[in-house]
Amino acid sequence: MDDSLKDKILLTIADNIRIERLKRKLTQDKLAEMCGITQKYLNLIEKAKVNPSILIVINICKNLEIDLNTVYDLSSLTL
Fold first, then answer.
1. What is the C-alpha separation between 67 and 78, in angstroms, rounded?
2. FRET label pair with 19: which of 29, 45, 62, 79, CA 20 to 30 Å apart?
3. pTM above 0.90, yes or no
4. What angle do CA 56, 57, 59 make, to 5 degrees?
């Protein structure tokens, strides 16, 4: 898999997390606290600057009360 595709996947995941957080009117601080991670790390996730582990993403989904498929919806990408 080339770096361009990896970047697009991370950006899509980041956007989906941010969109779901904003739908729930949660700040990065509040969601990070709920997830037991730092606000700085959540910010890096939402900016697609880091590749979070599946366990972190599951925890975020749990706290946003969404299905994992919501975050990993890559249907807008050409793979």
1. 22
2. 79
3. yes
4. 65
From its phi and psi, is residue 27 left (phi > 0), alpha (psi between -120 and 50) or beta? beta
The token pair at 43 is 């910010």
Contacts of 14 (CB under 8 A, 6+ apart): 45, 46, 47, 48
C-alpha distance from residue 5 to each of 20, 46, 77, 79 (Å): 23, 17, 9, 8
What is the Cα–Cα distance from 74 to 79, expressed in whole angstroms? 9
pLDDT digits (tens, 9 = 90+) for 20-33: 999 999 999 999 99
- 26-78: pLDDT as tens digits: 999 999 999 999 999 999 999 999 999 999 999 999 999 999 999 999 888 77
Contact (CB, 8 A) for 9 and 78: no
